[in-house]
Batch of 2 targets.
Target 1
Amino acid sequence: MSLFLQLVSVPKAIETVRDIAVRCRDETVSLGEALHRVLAQDIYTDIDIPGFTRSVVDGFAVRAAETTGSSDAIPSIFTFRGRIAMGSSSGILVQPGECIYVPTGGILPGGADAVVMIEHTEQIGGEVLVRRAVAYGENVLLFNEDFARGDAVCPEGKRLSPRDIGVLAAAGCTIVPVVRMPKVGIISTGNELVPVSEKPLPGQIRDVNTYVVASFVQEQGGLPLLFGIVRDDRDALHSAISRAASECDAVLISGGSSKDNRDMVATVIAEKGEVMVHGIAIAPGKPTIIGRWGTTPVVGLPGHPASAYIVLIAIVRHLLAGMTGETGSSIRVVQATLGQNVPSSKGREDYVRVIVQDGIASPVFGKSGLLNTLVQSTGVVRVPADSEGLETGTPVEVILW
Ligand code: AMP
Ligand code: MG
């Protein structure tokens, strides 16, 4: 109980979850299954990319110097020497005064050092009029300009986007080393909770958190395992956490995390494991527990879904990143200007929901227990612990939901 009075700062809480996070082991997946997985090793390319100098436009390969001064009024004239076929190399050389047609992606013939876009040319029989000068290398991708053989194309710790997958494909990485997705056990506690499939009776509410937390875990690259609703009962809680901890890499429990003596999550964790943090200087989200059950990290989240979500973003995200090995940021932000004053207490990190419109972030004040603002707001603005509030007109970073 007394621990709860000793609030730790957000950075300290993050450090604590980082310390207890164990990176999951590596496994391999096929390239087609690698989207959103975290790379377990740097990936190198086995070839030069591109492997040949090629045109990036449809046009005529020329010696750039010979186009100097070309214009609509005074085009330069080249002898047409033929066409390059897509996907094949050609022995023909561009001699002085000659040009060769190259399709986009076609190999640049020897002798040529630039390509004039077809739009700036006119072919008349065996001659091509060039109406625009090109510089050396213009409209051309040089041999290994993208990546040289042996270059690292994608770093360990990167969560793979569709764009990364494309680069891995180009590098010939068909079997991708990734970090195993952490299994995260999810428990909701509270005598008032009923499964979402039920109509709550007076005094009851549907279990929102199981699905909020599970979706967040999924979004962050984890594998949620649901352990359902547990009553506010020591033995029931003990056996649920015990089962979840033995089957999972981490356990997230929501509800029962405050100092109210009916809220026994911290007590139960302390019986079997260790409670390192009980109470964080964050609003909303103060009644948060960070602990361990054996070696398995366990986080107790506040019951209010809106508060729980802030703790997921501010703290749990770092626990999951420690387990997946993800090095980049897994949140997206936009810059905006604050449309209203936001008061805040010094010594506490505040997360204020905002609606962003035309670059203005308008705070959504009101009852933090309401769910509707979670859907209607754009994201949250973090007010740092050393700040006593932010004034209208302050540039802020909005963490997008
Ligand atoms: P607690 O932290 O257990 O005191 O809960 C704080 C508030 O959050 C109470 O109003 C609970 O009914 C609510 N709450 C707790 N767990 C959930 C849940 N899984 N889904 C929705 N609301 C919850
Ligand atoms: Mg409760």
Target 2
Amino acid sequence: MKNVVLIGFMGTGKTSVGKILAGKLGFAFADIDKKIEEEYSMTIADMFINKGESYFRSVEQQMVKRLAARKNTVIATGGGAVANAENMKALRENGLIVCLKANVDSIKARTEGNDNRPLLMALTDEERTKKIEELLATRAEFYEQADYTVDTSELSPMQVADDIARFCLKNKNRRKTNSNENS
Ligand code: S3P
């Protein structure tokens, strides 16, 4: 079976779902941001602040390329990795692309008080809402490229992982589906 690549906005559950999903499928789990942090001995927030976003994006692209070449792996991407066409090409080559989405309220609640999300740091509540809405709007076209999409707003990570595992095991075709069309 192909890798399973989790894409989607910050706070949609890619890391927590990915770990559970990997266990269910008997796959390894790789989180692109975590690998970057380990390799560069720096948090993503520090990398943004000290080196700038474009530096982070080039490091992210190199890491995507490396991890995309693995086999039998659930790969969790950072929320912005999809905006780079080369990233998507590499990930799709050997992977089924699954998008996790969530409504703005869930995203806000799940990213609240988190100091390792540089794009949402140091903002008022109102500014955070605006920033999330803006980023969601500019990234919608990329998230829509997924083979399968699950809305995680009302689901636990276990429920989401179950849903994706069923999809992976039952669907050999790579057609575009939403979870509510697949049940
Ligand atoms: C980003 C999302 C983050 C991380 C970085 C940039 C984004 O990952 O890669 O802060 O551009 O949306 P998560 O989606 O895992 O929070």
